[in-house]
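Recall that a protein's primary structure is simply its ordered list of amino acids. Everything else, from secondary elements to tertiary packing, is in principle encoded there. The following example makes that idea concrete.
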Amino acid sequence: MENFIDLSGEWSLKSADWEHGRTIPAQLPGDNYSALLAAGAIPDPYFGCNETLVQEFRKYEWEFEREFDVPASLLEYDSVYLNVEQLDTFGTIFINGHRVLTGNNMFRRYRPEVKPALKPGRNVIRIHFKSAELEAKKEALRQKREIPMNGCSKVEHLNLIRKVHCHGGWDWGITLMVTGVYAPLTLTGVNLARIDYVHTEQKHEKKRVTVTAVAELSALRSGRKTVTFTFNGETKTVTASLKKGENRVKALFVVDNPKLWWPNGLGEASLYLLTVSTDDETVEQEIGLRTLEVINQPDEYGVSMYFRVNGFDVFCKGADWIPADAMPARVTPAVLDDLLESARLANMNMLRVWGGGQYESEEFYRLCDRKGLLIWQDMMFACSLYPSNEEFIENVRQELNFQIRRLRHHPSLALWCGDNEVIGATRWYGEDKRLVNTIHYDRLNRELARMVETFDPDRLFWPSSPCGGPNNFNDGWHDDSCGDMHYWEVWHGGREFSAYYSVKPRFCSEFGYQSFPSFETVKRFCPPEQFNVFSPVMDHHQKCVRGNAPIIGMFGKYFRMPESFENFLYLSQVQQALAIKTGVEFWRSLKPRCMGTIFWQLNDNWPVASWASIEYGGKWKQLQYHAKRFFAPVIGVLYQDEAKVLQLHLVSDLPVKATATVTAVAYDFDGNELRRFDLSASLRPNENRRLKSFKASELADLDPDACFIELVTVAETAEGRRFRHENTFFFSPFKRCDLHKAALQVQVEEKDGHYFCRLTTDKPAFFVTLDTPGIPCIFSDNSVTLLPGVPVELEFTPKRKTSLKELQKDLAVNDLRNTYN
């Protein structure tokens, strides 16, 4: 396009504070730390303890610069605007020495007029960044009251500026105060008006949806402009009379027999292409036709919280999302697709974008739309208090004026949430200050609500996570009667996994348990001489203040101590999977009282011990494989209640009826069958049913330390869909069970270009895990139970080209009994 220039590519980077202004190459979109690393100017911050060696750069001022050519034809347009998004954070942009923009909020979009600064031929653009840390300190001095920040951040006062909080570190995150621009900088020439936003308004009737496409144009002056809309094979042209400033131009389309957009597991995530064009610009969006309500009403248990999509009540299953990398230059579309596809494959249907991170890129939400992943969208406030003066609130208004209008067209966007744990933070810093803190919190929070009501009135604004709902600032860590809950008594409170049975949340949006990354990942950041969980390097990659104590302490309650460093890492992942499985399965068995389980967290932003189910780099931990099973559409759940009675539930999230059979078999540790229950049921759509209570008298002759139950559930629908779910239940902690060493055998073969691993055993084996160090992959299942005489075949899907020979060479197997002698 002759009226469009993309400034992405190679720039130069320098700092007057560093090596006498040495200049190095840099990429934008990108960040300064990635450029320094690529130039060999710093050691890899992710390796060893190198994080400590790169902290000086966060106090420097940095400049990006490049030359670019402007054709004379571009300057013939009425206006040439520079589109600037994700400018991090205190950046001033100069073109040919003329200042065209000064930014102070990385979550805003800026579109300055730059035509007067441009000239035909060669031009120079320069971006000067101040130190966000030093600017935050200046802001603290300007405040009339103390505004405390959560101690997870190692950089003070980031709550006073609009930058990603976890750039300053978190209890899973590296401290890396990056700066740069993380979205393409572009120049566009337009006549009369530019397109700022496009969205749709939908009216749903039986077998028909009326779609009103809305283009929001910003006009330089009054005049007429033609806008063309194309949707569902139909094109409509509108010649609009524009006034100076903001304008809305509409076109109406009727879709008969529409293909609705459904969350993952409930139907197709159908999308329609909407194109809006003027003679200067074209905007394309993928639109999903769907209704969505958040049902927040009094009931017999308190006040409900669940999501109703297209009239169907959805049990939300998923995890919390943090930024995909501490170095933004590494967050490519391929990285996002890999992580989000992993969520989809694990039967997740919702992710919560956490408030200490960032509003994600357009690519992130586009992928969520396509994969049927609902998004609980926090606004970017987390675990701290915030200013409520007019200057700060106005800055936030401009932020949300952009973010809400940018994201509202996405069918995946389910809810706007004001913050993460800020209601709780009002009472963290002294009871005597709680009232004042709450008043200031309410002042800001009301403005967030008003912005949603103004720009996205069809979506609910949820004040905070956790909270009891609109106008209810309850204690969401302990009150399970309403709203969403954050339940941390198992990890932070050190309680046993059975503590999950003591709460019955309406929707649990945060709970978790830590593990270490795999040995393969550890070897990428830790030298061999430091292969000890208490070594300086391993300690450095454990950011939780309490460190390894909860992991080791819980080992003592459930397991025998592992006898090697590698098995220590493996067992930590077994334990993490068991913890989250316990909570999710019990809470799913409470449906419809509980209608959502979102565990902390899906991903890491660097290699670290953390609560993530996917390691940095995309490798699935055991938890992610267990999530694929405990989030399956139909599951059999077996747990022991507080009266020591076994409760067997059959839970379906299907939108249709199904017939199901459940086989529960008690085995000893030689694999001999001791007792069998065969049950069947007809399931209504979305039904949770208790099938059986195992009375103590029925199990009186079984030694709880010498047996386990294998549960196999098979469900079929009238349409022919078939679901199979396997579950394993232990009566006693693993450490009390006399598990036998198993002779595990793995055969690998290739069929029609696909790889399959066939596992067999002579004794029952638990948490049997296949691994392929050096070959990134996903297995169809993993961390499974094996029984004698029952082979298990797992499909191996590599993420890069590999061969049968390479797979056979690198394949490794482990199980629980192998962790000790």
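The CA atoms of residues 190 and 280 lie 6 Å apart. The longest strand covers residues 193-205.
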